[in-house]
Design goal:
InterPro entries: MPAB, MPAB/Lcp_cat_dom. It comes from Desertifilum tharense IPPAS B-1220. It holds the Pfam family MPAB_Lcp_cat. GO terms for molecular function: oxidoreductase activity. There is one protein chain. By secondary structure, the chain is mostly helical. It has one domain. It is globular. The relative contact order is 0.16.
Length: about 290
């Protein structure tokens, strides 16, 4: 595409239901790759606020012992589906791998549906606050239809037929199930330590408070994190909004920037989809 105007002209001709994959792929790989990655990290933190979810994650030990691999595996599975589509060979392999990983555990349909909803609404909410432009209604609906189809292939039941219904479920679920537990705190702290490990040691202390600043009070309370002053929150929001203004002046991206296209700390020499997730998944019980 020659430029951003070309994309918008093309977008106006697309249907968010019939063309949701094409729209969502362009959003993730070209229009909002950095924003999508950051917002999904916030979505990840929100899932830790539910004791039934954090207890399962705590029990596996993946976040404590292999946090980088756990992060990379999740990002790669999501990116494979977003980049190639859930009906492609690679997308289908990623879905099968994800289902195999989840199939080892007893996870409620409620929890599955909530996690699915965070993949839709946290990027939309981040975009509304810090996007270099607002997502169109077509893009927001395409995101809903894309993840609804993924959810069906994950065998999630009772997925609402409309986006407002699912967003209402997302809000109601958080109001009912967000509460503090020690497993929330342990998983949340392990993930924050992972984020900080990507930076030089001298920057980690100020950056830790920045991570907390990106989280709302409900998440801070459920994970046992310290409160954030309104002044710190306001300063970080101004910086992110300044970044958004600067990005508007950049030329349109000519090459995709999916998570699969980035340097992977866990897989410096490349990866196979069958390698993603805990090493015991897919092996005979005698090898586990």
């Amino acid at each position: 595409m020659r430029g951003r105007e070309d994309y918008f002209q093309r977008l106006q001709q697309l249907d968010p239901l019939d063309d949701h994959y094409e729209i969502y792929r362009f959003m993730v790989g070209y229009e909002f790759p950095w924003e999508m990655q950051r917002s999904l990290e916030v979505a990840l933190m929100r899932t830790f606020c539910v004791p039934s979810i954090s207890a399962l994650l705590d029990k596996t030990g993946e976040f404590q012992h292999r946090p980088q691999k756990r992060y990379d595996d999740t990002g790669l599975i999501v990116a494979e589906i977003a980049k190639w589509g859930y009906e492609s060979d690679r997308g289908s392999q990623a879905l099968q791998r994800m289902n195999a990983i989840h199939g080892r555990f007893k996870i409620s349909n409620e929890d599955f549906l909530y996690v699915l909803s965070t993949f839709i609404y946290e990027p939309i909410r981040w975009n509304a606050r810090f996007g270099w432009r607002l997502m169109s209604e077509t893009e927001r609906l395409a995101s809903f239809y894309f993840w609804r189809e993924v959810g069906k292939r994950m065998h999630i039941q009772d997925i609402p037929e409309t986006s407002p219904e699912l967003e209402r479920y997302n809000r109601d679920y958080e109001a009912q199930y967000f509460r503090y537990s020690d497993t929330n705190r342990r998983i949340g702290e392990a993930t924050c330590e992972l984020f900080l490990s990507w930076f030089p040691a001298i920057l980690r202390s100020p950056l830790q408070s920045s991570i907390y600043t990106l989280l709302d009070d409900a998440v801070l309370e459920a994970c046992g994190f310290p409160e954030v002053s309104p002044q710190k929150r306001s300063r970080l929001e101004r910086l992110l909004k300044l970044r958004a203004k600067l990005v508007r002046f950049l030329p349109p991206r000519q090459q995709p920037d999916f998570f699969t296209d980035s340097h992977l700390r866990s897989y410096p020499s490349g990866y196979q989809i069958s390698e993603l997730g805990p090493p015991s998944v897919g092996k005979p019980s005698s090898e586990r």
